[in-house]
């Protein structure tokens, strides 16, 4: 019996016990009429089909996304590995396990990334904007740091939003220097930090922190509105000048660049323009980073649904 | 000498004194090098070109839209009437004149319209939504009632927004009955009342109350965001349930129907769908109402820029 | 043995005899090489998979949509109910059964709806247009009343077109009052009545009256052209003035509002504009009415293919 | 004094008398307050600005497009030629002049073109379609032959529609041979002949036969609908089979190829597809033929508004 | 035992030996764990599913598209014919078989078609263009003649590009006569011949000559660029004037007509305009020619994916 | 008399002699019939209307853009300064003046910029790509450095392309570090250097080096094709591997990002994606840099035609 063995290391015949995430849970009946539970067993390293025979509940679809203590054996079915669950108990508050081991996470050190984020923000000269950014980070930083940046498409893993934000802050810092004659550095940095703040309320998260669906306010209001409103209300509370809040909220409301991509207004200043291009740039580069390992360099292209086209990997 | 004679009644040779609105003020020089002021003299009934010879200031373009006490004479130039100003003094707080006489206004009785508006809203069964609507009317009702609904295109006159809102409330009341199985009447009525609330902060107004330009927040944030934020903040203050506020803000944020027409999100419930159609319907009908008097029934079509097409007037 | 039991009431073990509609008929062979007929058994209340074992004909796909007298038993297969047919005879002229019981129908009383329709039309002041409408109703009223308004998407049931038309007439009546300064009431009402007249020739109908496919003229000419042509030819016969016929045909040809939605010309008068908005409004509300019962209020949204988006049901 | 001298031959100092077309007639006043008539004098060879001093009527804008007997002298103003009218009398039934000399006409012999048109149609094997085509030519041939094919853009001269139709018939004849396996020659030829038949009722014509504006039915119904309706009514009268009429009307209703270019339905058979491509091809080639003489081969491109792009002339 | 029997003639029970093309090769395991090869057996007349039981290699997916010598028997499975392979050997250089019999080919005589192509090109008056065309035909003619014109959609068979090019040359020859005033015949003919030249490097071909995929340069550069570059380099080598090469390359780079259809530049001369219309015309007609045999004349329409619509076959 | 005084320093009454650029040259007649030359006098600092009275030639429109030695006096007309030319002689080879003083130039030191460009390129590790870049710079560097990056819109001044290219190289260098896991640095740098190489042949230049019009090949082939072709031919000559040339030409052909913006193919690798975003970013920032000085910070927005929207300047 092995404990908490990584899913990517499981082989036929392994006897396993440990904590895993269960996804896509369904209650079914075999052709012989026997009830069973079908699901996906996963951790940060991968996932595998699983069955629990002669099971009638109480677990069901609404438990998808939860962590559970499993005991079972790895078999093969139709050429693929299959985890036959022998015992299943959903994890509760008393269980000790590392949630980070059960969900894919960004390839960054969250602590260092947050520290670098704060360093860059700390270098802002405008005291009002700096205080606003740091206050919002204080209030929401923990949730913000752990949040995936998306449900799928790109950065759909823990700390995804932090990784996306930090990459953009680094580029913004460089470009604010290159284009210092037209770009107000502090406004740009604040806009980058806060452009996706509203995602805090846009998603339903699984117990392990991944996005399962949009929340009702996420669907009906969108993260642009929710982020701008939070920034504006907090800014008023802190006494930030209305003019600066208007500009900062403009950056948030316009950062999708074009109404057909979801922008509530079109970018109308150089900082908003640059923010929307930086957002597109980092999203695109991450889509490539996630897609390219699936193909061979220099030969056949790979169809990437998020880009609606085929892409090549350069040798 | 006649006093406060209506612009539409002025004829060549009239000697006039009275209060008029001055627009499009420019300081020019004649080919002989003499300075003069060129402007438009207007009131609620019409407008006319005007000149004030040998004038070097202090009035200038920034005074456009203000009311002034004028004395002068009506002449003819190149086949058109022209008002030769002999004396000009801008109106101040001490001047007694009827601003309503100087700016075009909606063909409604504002008091009755506001009363009918409140009657319809008073019939809402949901106490939270009713209280929210009436509170917002109390706080903003005066400005709301006087506001034009647009800078041009349609309802671009005093009380235009009230007229537009009341027409939509009447239709919404009827249609909420016809489609009572799918439409939540109170939500629809609240959405109709508040859909353009953000226009309170979207425009720069002339001293007489007409729209001269978009305000900075109007351009950078738009009336959808500003209206939804005000509704949400007020609703929280009044203890309205978050679910209702989300729905109501959704109606506001989606009422342009389609991102390419400025909607921040697409309508996702029957009430939002209906609101966006009602808004388009009343706007279109008012565009026709303003355009058709300019043409003859049943003969030549009229090009209407706001519709980007030619339209016919039915006999 | 139970007779004509409603499909929605059938349970495992029921022995049934009665008239049902057969749909999607296919002749197949089992893996053991035995021939059988597979189909759907349905009535106005619902539908169920069915099999007739050891069947080689003569029925086949071309009989889909016909009514038949069935005897059989309800069983379960793979967790769903299945009707095992023991005897099948297609209904002929001599069979006595209620076709209305076999096909879904609009939730209206057709007689009352037609009477209200005629009442509204009878109130038209323009004698020529009134006579034209009533004559067309006389000639085509029966087929018109029973016709579904669509193949799918919305109002795809018996009396669907009548229900759609009457709802629009009610709204048109109200709005013609509200916008009486720009809208010619009689022209609008006539346009509403006749806008989908051409659908009489646009569909292939099943024996029970549902739309199975587009007819050849339906595909090649469309209901806009066919409706306008019928109205114009009938109008000429009745001596209606050419000017009125041109306007009325314009309303028909433009009622899809935009060429990309199938309009042959764009609306060029207030009545045509209003008609196209009323058509969209009633279609949208009916799509919501048909979709919302499939979801729970206030929680998860429902993807509605006809709207190409997800929608929420308000509590 | 020279009589009926061609406009393109007029020079400063010429004394002229003759018949010319008057266009763009306006009644104006000079800066000195003297009334005069301003217009364009034109014939088939060109046009020139003209003035009639001290003129107060009765001629006016509504006489634009009429022929008149003029006497006057050619002068120069601001570097351009100007015709100073000394006597003006509009032409009536008693006047003898060649209207063809006053309006630009297609560079074809109308008689020969009509004969070739009939020859090609006479070669159709399907007796019903041939009879339908020849009957429609008999009834409308004269008006059809003289009609410009457009108000501007291309073929906007007398006999333009005949020239356009004959060119397309020649190409259709060739292509029906090349693609004989997929194209029904008689249907294609009939569709080509009749595709623009509805233009007979789409325009307002000047007394000399040029298009001045769209007619009311032209705007409200369009030439696609009016042509198809005329073809269908005539075909029914002649006993042509409904199937053939449906196909032929489909070609007419779809010949603009795409709804965004005005097609009422999209082409759904090979003949309709080919017709829409032939129409575009001949229109494009004629636009080039009219535009290229205005530029030099091989050097600077010419902006052609009808194509919304610049084009080159090949040496 | 029958030899090289056409696939379209195979019947249950046939014992066959012969050369066939193998496509879509997959190595699988049965539910009982037995390995087998699954593929498609095809020749110019049709294709059929096939199995080779107890097979573990060495053939695999990378051999798809190759010819092989097969021995086997035709059986039936689930109502369809199935070829049970008993012996399989891929064809090598020593094998004698007619590749043309194994791949679908255009319904033309390639030799005659090439001769007619050269005849038309030989009639060009411009010596430089004629020499350029004939030189390119000499260098690339063999590959050019055999190439399919596409991977699917239309002309996706051997000699497809030659058939497509010749049809267009015939039409171009006719239309250059009809529009001789605006069209430079030699330039048009040269453009037609060379418009798809770049397809020589755009595809990966199977051993039998059919298109299996786009090549890397095909994806990354496109056939417009590659064709124009080849024409320009060859033209410089032959001393063709730069002006003519610019025009000819323009025809190639613009022949898709519109950037949204892949044109690198928009057509800017009459010849480029005509070329793009001819290309669309011949493609469309061939799509119809390939689609129509699949449906019945005059009844139900056929959905044609390449046209994104349903089409009718005329009786 | 002052010599070569900067246009921006000229005042009423100045007597001037010096070299200036003449633009928009027209030969006109006064209302009194006197011939004169009208033009624009400009240098790198600004421009002014000018007249040369009683002038009949030989200078004319075709001399626009040339430098000339002028003597004259500055006067005022209608409130604007006007240069009255007393003597005019176009500059020839013998004239000694600084062309850079007569045409606006990028605010960079061209020598330093070129050196930094070469430094960055010299740091490439791939020897083939580095050699290709440096060879192309050697052959075309002088023309490349001086070229404006556009006819108008942005960077439309001398050394504009160099400034644009260097800015992009700096950003590319930074981003190649940030995204080193997905981006091949050398390929990206080479693509940035060469993406606009084809502009060398796309424009007609005035004698002073500004863009007056597109050249014939510029219009008919575009700079994407011409640049890729030059790169590929040079690369073959230098023995660069075909695979690298394909990738590099792909970057050039796709750098407009989207076919609707002129891309010949869509970007299909991370480097091409990044290049197209960098190009858009630097163009946008330069448009802001050129537009913002025309407006006041924080108040009224400025309509920028190149962006098709109004923009704000942040304080």
User: Any idea what the radius of gyration of chain A is?
Assistant: 23 Å
- Tell me the span between the first and last alpha carbons of chain A: 42 Å
How many strands of chain A?
10
Strand numbers in spatial order across the main sheet of chain A: 2-3-4-6-5
Shape of chain A: elongated
SS element count, helices of chain A: 9
Largest sheet of chain A: 5 strands, mixed, barrel
Flag low-confidence runs of chain A.
Answer: none
Written account of the structure:
- The structure is a homohexamer of 315-residue chains.
- Chain A is α+β, with helices and mostly antiparallel strands and 315 residues long.
- Chain A has helices at residues 99-102, 110-122, 127-146, 160-178, 185-194, 216-220, 222-238, 242-253, 270-291; strands spanning 2-3, 15-29, 35-43, 46-53, 67-77, 80-90, 203-205, 211-214, 302-304, 309-311.
- In chain A, a hairpin with a 2-residue loop joins strand 3 and strand 4 (46-53).
- The radius of gyration of chain A is 23 Å and the shape is elongated.
- The interface between A and F is large, with 38 and 38 residues.
List the keywords:
homohexamer, 315 residues, alpha+beta, 5-stranded mixed beta barrel, two-stranded antiparallel sheet, 9 helices
What are the SSEs and their pairings?
The structure is a homohexamer of 315-residue chains.
Chain A: E1 2-3, E2 15-29, E3 35-43, E4 46-53, E5 67-77, E6 80-90, H1 99-102, H2 110-122, H3 127-146, H4 160-178, H5 185-194, E7 203-205, E8 211-214, H6 216-220, H7 222-238, H8 242-253, H9 270-291, E9 302-304, E10 309-311
Parallel strand pairs in A: 1-2, 4-6
Antiparallel strand pairs in A: 2-3, 2-5, 3-4, 5-6, 7-8, 9-10
Helix pairs in contact in A: 2-3, 2-4, 3-7, 4-5, 4-9, 5-8, 5-9, 7-8
């Amino acid at each position: 019996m092995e404990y908490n063995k990584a899913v990517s290391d499981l082989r036929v015949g392994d006897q396993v016990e440990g904590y895993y995430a269960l996804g896509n849970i369904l209650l079914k009946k075999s052709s012989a009429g026997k009830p069973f539970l079908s699901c996906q067993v996963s951790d940060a390293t991968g996932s595998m089909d699983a069955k629990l025979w002669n099971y009638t509940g109480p677990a069901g679809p609404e438990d998808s996304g939860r962590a559970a203590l499993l005991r079972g054996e790895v078999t093969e079915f139709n050429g693929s590995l299959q985890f036959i669950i022998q015992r299943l108990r959903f994890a509760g508050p008393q269980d000790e396990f590392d949630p980070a081991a059960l969900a894919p996470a960004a390839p960054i050190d969250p602590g260092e990334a947050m520290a670098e984020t704060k360093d860059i923000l700390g270098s802002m000269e405008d005291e009002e904007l700096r205080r606003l950014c740091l206050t919002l980070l204080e209030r929401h930083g923990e949730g913000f740091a752990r949040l995936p940046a998306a449900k799928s498409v790109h950065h759909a893993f823990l700390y995804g939003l932090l990784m996306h934000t930090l990459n953009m802050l680094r580029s913004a810092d460089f470009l604010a220097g290159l284009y210092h004659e037209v770009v107000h550095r502090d406004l740009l940095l604040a806009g980058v930090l806060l452009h996706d703040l509203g995602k805090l309320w846009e998603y339903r998260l699984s117990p392990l922190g991944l996005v399962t669906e949009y929340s009702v306010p996420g669907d009906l209001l969108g993260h642009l509105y929710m982020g701008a409103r939070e920034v504006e209300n907090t800014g008023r509370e802190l006494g930030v000048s209305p003019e600066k809040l208007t500009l900062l909220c403009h950056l948030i409301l316009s950062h999708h660049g074009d109404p057909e991509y979801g922008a509530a207004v079109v970018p109308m200043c150089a900082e908003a323009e640059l923010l929307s291009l930086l957002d597109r740039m980092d999203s695109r580069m991450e889509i490539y980073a996630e897609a390219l390992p699936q193909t061979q360099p220099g030969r056949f292209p790979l169809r990437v649904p998020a880009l609606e086209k085929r892409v090549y990997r350069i040798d």
